[in-house]
Amino acid sequence: MKRYLQVDDIGDLKQALKDAFEIKQNPYAFKQLGENKTIILVFFNSSLRTRLSTQKAAMNMGMNVMVLDINKDGWKLESEMGVVMDGDKPEHIKEAVPVIGQYCDMIGVRSFATFESKDDDYSEKVINQFIQYSGVPVISLESATRHPLQAFADLITIEEHKQKERPKVVLTWAPHPRALPQAVANSFAEWMKKAEVDFVITHPKGYELANEFAEGASIEYDQRKAFKDADFIYAKNWSSFNNYGKVLSQDKDWTVDEEKMALTNGAKFMHCLPVRRNMIVSDGVIESKNSIVVQQAANRVVSAQTVIKRMLEGL
Amino acid sequence: MKRYLQVDDIGDLKQALKDAFEIKQNPYAFKQLGENKTIILVFFNSSLRTRLSTQKAAMNMGMNVMVLDINKDGWKLESEMGVVMDGDKPEHIKEAVPVIGQYCDMIGVRSFATFESKDDDYSEKVINQFIQYSGVPVISLESATRHPLQAFADLITIEEHKQKERPKVVLTWAPHPRALPQAVANSFAEWMKKAEVDFVITHPKGYELANEFAEGASIEYDQRKAFKDADFIYAKNWSSFNNYGKVLSQDKDWTVDEEKMALTNGAKFMHCLPVRRNMIVSDGVIESKNSIVVQQAANRVVSAQTVIKRMLEGL
Amino acid sequence: MKRYLQVDDIGDLKQALKDAFEIKQNPYAFKQLGENKTIILVFFNSSLRTRLSTQKAAMNMGMNVMVLDINKDGWKLESEMGVVMDGDKPEHIKEAVPVIGQYCDMIGVRSFATFESKDDDYSEKVINQFIQYSGVPVISLESATRHPLQAFADLITIEEHKQKERPKVVLTWAPHPRALPQAVANSFAEWMKKAEVDFVITHPKGYELANEFAEGASIEYDQRKAFKDADFIYAKNWSSFNNYGKVLSQDKDWTVDEEKMALTNGAKFMHCLPVRRNMIVSDGVIESKNSIVVQQAANRVVSAQTVIKRMLEGL
Description:
Three copies of one chain form a homotrimer.
Chain A: E1 3-4, H1 13-25, E2 38-43, H2 49-60, E3 64-69, H3 70-73, E4 77-78, E5 91-92, H4 93-102, E6 106-110, H5 118-122, H6 125-134, E7 138-140, H7 148-161, E8 168-173, H8 183-194, E9 198-202, H9 211-214, E10 218-220, H10 223-227, E11 232-236, H11 258-261, E12 268-270, H12 283-286, H13 293-314
Parallel strand pairs in A: 1-7, 2-3, 2-6, 4-5, 6-7, 8-9, 8-11, 9-10, 11-12
């Protein structure tokens, strides 16, 4: 495995799950694979879960880990070609990335959508430069349009908690005070469409995801109708794709609360975290016994370690 | 050992000292205990000694270490219950803490007094949330009211340098330009009262420590009188407890200088560092052969390692 | 080896190169040397290559590594003697440095020229305080006047790429929007004068390096004349030494471009990075097959590891 950006990079999901549960059972069984191997985690943005869980996963594999908050520790990076670099960015990504690649066997990169340009974001400009120039395998720690370690952890969590062969999984938009990327929703949709689930997306009009992600999922604009008989409710805010990066609604009628959860089939509540209480979800729901957000976050180690193991095997 | 916040958590001080000297003698003898174990050090505040010495202690024990400057690396944390999270804090401590607990076997937390609320500070609101929600053992790296790794290091240092069975130890307030927490003074008092020493606290009126810490110590408002025959002078600034968080005096007559040290029984000079020269202590005293501040800081590794070892044994 | 600040600290360059190539060949062969040994990397300034390559080098040697961004993680340090510390710097370097020394076996320090005082910078005030007070070996990760790990990596790179016994190596000044230290140019000059090369420095009038560095090198004010028959072009900006810290020129006629490279003997292009494209060097030159800036950066691991290995052997 040379890159991990999207669902297709992991191949067969059943096999991926099998590998993941083997690792979860026995996290230190593969330490010799990572001996004398180094991963660098490059952050353009803040991170709590991703930072810690990916470090933990790499250490479980016996690797050395270096963490780089690139804009704070290093130099601001220019990514445009052909510019005269006389401004505030002293280093070009075309130098920085191959150099980072020289110091490690694997790179993880977090680089959120900036909303400056839909084309730049949806062409995955930054992470693709890491793939193109680094010379080593690249793991997305959330890119502009996808968050594949999260989606893999989500799948693992659903597999662990499902009560029936083919559960109903609902991705619901929920309100948030700021404009957020579509990455988590995109990846979750991408994964759920390939998984053994009935998948429904619900959101207000105007919040349609990009075609490549929404296509093939059931879209339901009535949140209550969508929740009916659901086994898993996955809440997440995202900003508009069509009206790119805009907040069209902060309607708290979309907040996930006890009354709406009562419409479900005793659904488990999921969210990738961080979550804003009483915007996305009520205190009552997130603190209920059906909330599995912490178990979901714990599986971030498992998804990361499964991906790292495959990459190590492919070196 | 499931928590390390205060003197009672360490049990018998003689046994603690015995364990500490065993570790100091042979710091790498217990590396197998920490194999495949991870500690996360969470900093809400700046740190030099605590950051480095606790990392070193954990590495000496063979552990993996992750350091999280939570407000810089992660997300600002909300700690109030029941709020609508539509402001600048995107994550609640009730999610963040259990998640961090999923990624490690042990957490160290530094969270200073904020002086916003005496009740919040003295109820140890933040570190108690880590104890309540993390699911793993918690070590205080200085909380709102105590600094127990410092106090343990102080005790070790006194034990190493004492010339008589029962030395006289004086904690003296000294001036400082800003409002500092009472944590170091509180913990030092808590430990000295249980140690085999004659313990005196000296400070200007208005700087009385909280009852639970001051009670049982000799209080002497005349600094020069307090210094008489002292074997150890421990200098520290703190802000007022009664007039909570206020700087009542910056009187340089309280600065520890050569003239006052001459009143002692050739006392050793101690301070937890960082120290403001010529406010807390004169250049001459801190550079004298009787200054043991560096040895004291070195013992921070020993106290941390002793605590970590006990926690590892209790996992 | 107790310190690594300048070319003389490495001794015979041929032996140094021999050691370096042995390490490059077999980077993990000496891991037992670093067992239970710790290096602390202290950064007063930003760093990408130095931060990552020195960490990697130390991990290759089996060491524990701690990284300290001292002004962000720790406390701002006072370095003046005799001051009343009532301002914004709560810790004195005379306490901080010996304490750091207690927590490790070796310190790396990055502390750039501040341009506040030519005397302070050229007397290497900060790094000399680390040498004087830490009690452990000190490696320069770029000091006010020198960057010796870079210069050693440069020498290794030239050795690997040279086509003739005694190549012609040209250090050329090039324009930059801000005032940069002379450290890289100084160290490169210091090393090249001792290496088996013909060494020429070219720069506009007013950009003469300090005597101790320039003396013995050929100085040529006509850049095109200097480039004639060159085998290596090493570009770098620096601010004026005589008119200390001033930017006297931003003349783009000094930018290294294809037309000027055509004057050379098919010279390799070198730069320490980060490099400002189309100021220092054209896109065409830095992306050409003769550009060896990435290989040069990769050798930063080799130079650092060679130095660390010698220090470990000397402990």
